[in-house]
Write a structure and sequence with these properties.
586 residues; alpha/beta; 8-stranded antiparallel sheet; 20 helices; single chain; phosphopentomutase activity; 6-stranded mixed sheet; glucose metabolism
């Protein structure tokens, strides 16, 4: 019933444009553990009023089946600032339609009255003890995209088998229920609640438990620049600084207010490198700020840059910031917990494609480190399991600039990560240390961990399948590569098939998934490289790392060795020319 999407379809029918209609209606968006992520537009392959109604009807029925008290507890729904003029879709509109679906079935809905960072939704699920949460966002995807992200009652993103169950329920509930389109009905409903004021107060109270140096924060002369990259982060990072008694960061004016067009950047993704930070560098130079904090548009990720003595800016990789935050959060914990026995209940987590630096710190300091599959859905769920067993999960991170610094949010959170990074930098400044110098000190103490990650773009699923099939049948059927150029392969773990050469029974310990590709190669020189497909973008990603024991300080030699390994990986395993792959460009 949306006049804009309806008109698009009618126009295509009038033109007899079968090709475009096939694209719009050929296949339904797949509901996975990341929920939905697609372009806004007409048809069942896109995010629009109808597909949101259908998805929510399926989700509602699935929740009714799983929770006898759903009508007592309810769900939370948040949204970012995305909007798409030509199809009339927007995150706010989709959130209201989703709320209407639940309310029509007598389910209480806590719908945020304004834009909110993604981490506020899992926080609200936990804080208000709700059955589930929905966040309407496409995070840092291109401007035409939107998404529908789902959290379970434990405050973590859903994992299997919930995705399959919800997907099936969507298939069974495709016809819109009566009044499904009329979102105005919710405004007069007693089942509609606005958690905005409560959550804003409680969240900032909870993150203050991670504030350990209030006096230093009050006095520091260190200046920060913050950019929300046309997303939701500005107001919330300002409030976080206030909660920690830090002077507010300078906001990049051109990127401060939400704008669904993302006019100043090619991609609204701080992970893409210096291009996104051009305006931040200019403002920092003007105001004499040493450190830049950049959130992605839904404020669940954080990038950090620091001005070096040479005048150059260093943008920290996700692994480098993970090393710094891991060191910092453990140091703060240690200084406040004199009981040496307590360390046996302390945990940190990171995903299998992230740096192993936390493992090195854990080995030396005596706490536990665990590795999970890629994605915060795995770290959030594992953290909750551990916390339910009375363990303290201090920190979890992923190399894709995602950090969980505060146990009140079981997902990545760019707001708390930004203010904790600012406190760490302020503390280090009192010791005349920069973040870069402290990073070197961490590597000196726990061993250098040099990482390099990138990706190739490939829009053809057949080519991707072929590339991975080739790796599994490299020297004849069912044989993996024994070497990559001059680098000897010493171990292989394939989490698509469940094979692991290092296990006595050759079966992988981590869960496997046939629906995504992921192979990890270990090399005789101590290098590790993982190749995997992305769940939300047409990319084949790779992650490589060379770990040296403490005391090996020839960093340049390590970097050279890793560069050579990566070049060999690209040439022999990706074969970009043969497979027509497009390299990542700055």
């Amino acid at each position: 019933q949306n006049p804009k999407t309806s008109a698009i379809v009618k126009q295509l029918v009038a033109e007899g444009n079968a090709g475009e209609l096939q694209k719009y209606f050929g296949s339904r968006m797949e509901f996975g553990t990341a929920g939905l992520r697609a372009a806004m537009g007409a048809g069942i392959s896109h995010m629009n009023d109808l597909t949101i109604i259908q998805t929510t009807q399926g989700f509602c029925r699935y929740l009714e089946k799983n929770f006898s008290d759903l009508k007592k507890r309810g769900v939370v729904i948040g949204f970012d600032a995305r909007a798409h003029l030509s199809s009339g879709g927007s995150s706010k509109r989709f959130a209201r339609l989703a709320a209407n679906t639940f309310i029509s079935q007598g389910v209480p809905v806590y719908l945020f009255s304004d834009i909110t960072p993604t981490p506020f939704v899992p926080y609200t699920v936990t804080h208000l003890k709700l059955c589930a949460g929905i966040m309407v966002t496409a995070s840092h995807n291109p401007k035409q995209d939107n998404g529908y992200k789902v959290y379970w009652e434990n405050g973590a993103q859903i994992i299997s088998p919930h995705d399959k169950g919800i997907s099936q329920a969507i298939e069974e509930n495709q016809e819109p229920w009566p009044q499904a389109w009329d979102d105005k009905l919710i405004d007069s409903s007693l089942l509609l609640h606005d958690p905005y004021a409560t959550v804003n107060k409680e969240y900032f109270k909870d993150i203050q438990k991670q504030c350990f140096h209030r006096n230093i924060n009050k006095e520091t002369n260190l200046k920060f620049v913050h950019t929300s990259v046309h997303g939701v982060g500005h107001k919330f990072v300002q409030l976080a600084f206030k909660a920690f008694d830090l002077s507010p960061p300078f906001a990049v004016p051109e990127q401060r207010d939400p704008d669904p067009e993302f006019p100043t950047v090619k991609y609204p993704n701080p992970e893409e490198g210096k291009g996104v930070l051009t305006l931040s560098f200019a403002l920092a130079e003007k105001d004499g700020a040493k450190i830049i904090l950049a959130n992605d548009p839904d404020a669940d990720r954080l990038a950090v840059a620091e001005k070096q003595e040479s005048g150059e800016w260093k943008v920290f990789s996700g692994n480098e910031l993970g090393a710094l935050l891991g060191w910092w959060i453990f140091t703060c914990w240690k200084n406040h917990n004199r009981d040496t026995c307590a360390i046996k209940d302390v945990y940190m987590l990171s995903s299998t494609v992230s740096s192993k630096i936390l493992r090195a710190i854990a080995l030396k300091e005596g706490f536990h480190f665990e590795e999970t599959l890629t994605g915060f859905k795995w770290m959030g769920n594992r953290a909750k399991q551990l916390m339910d067993q009375g363990k303290a999960v201090l920190f979890a991170f992923e190399e894709a600039i995602g950090y969980m610094c505060c146990p009140a949010v079981l997902d990545k959170d760019g707001v708390s990560a930004a203010v904790i990074t600012a406190e760490m930098a302020s503390f280090l400044a009192t010791r005349n240390l920069s973040l870069s110098q402290q990073l070197k000190a961490v590597y000196d103490e726990y061993g250098f961990h040099i990482t390099k990650a990138s990706y190739f773009i490939c829009h053809d699923p057949k080519v991707i399948q072929q590339l991975f099939d080739n790796l599994r049948n490299f020297d004849g059927k069912n044989t993996y590569p024994k070497s990559c150029g001059r680098f000897k392969v010493s171990g292989i773990r394939d989490l698509t098939t469940g094979y692991d050469s290092s296990q006595p029974d050759q079966k992988a310990i981590l869960p496997t998934s046939k629906s995504s590709q992921m192979i990890t190669f270990t090399f005789a020189n101590g290098g590790v490289a993982t190749m995997r497909t992305s769940g939300t973008e047409p990319k084949i990603k790779y992650y490589s790392e060379l770990c040296a024991p403490p005391g090996n300080s020839d960093v340049e030699q390590l970097k050279k060795e890793l560069d050579e390994l990566v070049n060999a990986l690209e040439k022999h395993f990706f074969q970009p020319e043969k497979n027509n792959l497009q390299q990542k460009t700055e």
